[in-house]
Amino acid sequence: MLIENIVLCFFGLCFGMTVSAGVFAFITMLDIIPRLAQRTGTAAHLYGYEVAIILGGTAGNIVLLFVKHFPVTQVGMGIFGLCAGVFVGCLSMALAESLRVIPIFVHRLKMRQGLPLILIAFAAGKLIGTIIQYFF
After folding, report:
1. Which residues contact 32 (CB under 8 A, 6 or more apart)?
2. Are 94 and 32 in contact (CB under 8 A)?
3. How many helices (H) and strands (E) does the chain have?
């Protein structure tokens, strides 16, 4: 029983690290932090942004894993909602900027036909992935 728990903890830790590395690689690939610092004119505080993201992710994981009952007031929920909204907004804006790649891609490949099929394939892939994730 003890060995089984140790193995489960090991695999859980490995899988958690893999997922978090993927999330941080995705955020890094989209250049969210440098773009945010550039747009707000606070490029001198770039290190502070990075530290805040790392500490926020770590604190969130610690609370999620080890605190069974975390008393949060209405003010705390408001602060959390504001921070989560800012993060989701920055992530969605970075994704929207990355979608500018499609017209450039089409122009460079000199595609005259087939763009609607490519967009339908993107949407169908997203739909199928969501259905698989939801039901399985």
Report:
1. 90, 91, 94
2. yes
3. 6, 0
Q: How far is CA 57 from the centre of its chain?
A: 11
CB-count exposure of residue 46 (10 Å: 0-12, 13-18, 19+)? middle
Q: What is the pLDDT of residues 87-127, one digit of tens each?
A: 777 777 777 766 677 777 777 877 778 778 877 888 888 88
Identify the H or E element spanning 39: helix 32-40
What digits encode the pLDDT tens for the residues 63-94?
Answer: 777 877 777 788 888 888 888 888 777 777 77
Model-level pTM greater than 0.85?
no
**Measured between alpha carbons, how far is 67 from 89 in angstroms, rounded to an integer?**
28
